[in-house]
Amino acid sequence: MCAHKVAVFVRDGLLAMEFGSVHRLFGQARSEKDEPLYNVVTCTLTPGTVRTDSDVDIHVTKGIEELADADTVIVPASDVDYGSSRLDVGGIFDAVPAGARIASICTGSFVLASAGLLDGKRATTHWKSAEQFRALYPQVRLEPNVLYTHDGNILTAAGEASGIDLCLYMIRCDFGAAVANEVARGTVVPPHRSGGQAQYMNTPVPRTTTTSTADAQAWAVANLDKPLSLELLASTQSMSVRTFTRRFAAEVGMSPAKWIVQQRLHRARELLEKTDHTIDRVAAEAGFGTATSMRQQLMAEIGVSPSAYRATFRGIR
């Protein structure tokens, strides 16, 4: 079997945690025959010593020629990304094959934006850098509250830890939930995190049991197959709809309606991967009501139909 090639493009000032996470996560992904599913290589513009944000430098022997046959290119952040001007990235990505996946972690998104790869696309970056990013790249559809984005063949993650979320998401897209869950288990991280960056921003949010929406979230996940109105969710927390909606957005980083769709898509994908249920039954159990509604949401999210998604992931051995 030919392993999926992941080229990690690094620069001086590399954030060591992001670099290590990429290698560790993709490196753990194995087939049922215990074969590595990914070939992870590190490259840089000029091979040699690359400074990191810690007291340990790394020696990189490979140049950007490694991008020419990569299936996925990942750009971790660097401490040089925090300046106030555009980065000069030249034609670094010119050699990347058409259709290859290109992803950034944290402020690595500044590199993708400087190369024009994010023009007109959805993207995110670390919330502390969102204002600077928006000023430099107004042509990008910045979504500063989400953990990661996927628009066509371009993916971006919000910060160091959400880089883990993004890597697990890519593994899941490539090889299914079972492989991604095993990698998550080995790394001792959740295979899927809900919500967005807002829950981590340094803003005053009351944390008493009377204002948290955690109970409503748990109840909703347990009852996705039922109609979930704002009034019903708010009542589980003994709140008015207005208060609940405001509190939910502050804690989770998105509206209750958008979050519910996200949870239903997650449930539908699990059922498509792990069961032989009909498409209609999957739609019903995930709370979409009809197969048509689920198909529309899945196509909008990942660009494939339920049948195509199942064919891809149920066929993996």
Short summary:
The protein is an alpha/beta fold and 317 residues long.
Strand order of the largest sheet: 2-1-5-6-10-9
Overall helicity: 40-55%
Task: Provide the β-strand percentage band.
Answer: 5-15%
Overall mean pLDDT stands at 87
Secondary structure class reads alpha/beta
Using the CA coordinates, give the radius of gyration.
20 Å
List the helices and strands in order: EHEEEEEHEHEEEHHHHHHHHH
For the terminal residues, how far apart are their CA atoms? 12 Å
Largest sheet: number of strands, sense, barrel closure: 6 strands, mixed
What's the number of extended β-strand segments? 10
Keywords for this entry:
two-stranded antiparallel ribbon, 41% helix, 12 helices, 317 residues, alpha/beta, 10 strands
Can you describe this structure?
The chain is α/β, with parallel strands linked by helices. It is built from 12 helices and 10 strands. The chain has helices at residues 16-28, 109-114, 130-136, 160-175, 177-187, 214-222, 230-236, 241-252, 256-274, 279-286, 291-302, 306-314; strands at 4-10, 38-44, 48-50, 58-60, 72-75, 101-105, 122-123, 141-142, 148-151, 154-157. The strands form 3 sheets. It has a 6-stranded mixed sheet with strand order 2-1-5-6-10-9. A two-stranded antiparallel sheet has the order 3-4. β9 (148-151) and β10 form a beta hairpin. α1 (16-28) runs parallel beside α4 (160-175), α9 (256-274) runs antiparallel to α10 (279-286) and α9 (256-274) crosses α12. The longest helix is centred in the C-terminal third of the chain and has 19 residues, at 256-274. It is globular and about 60 Å long.
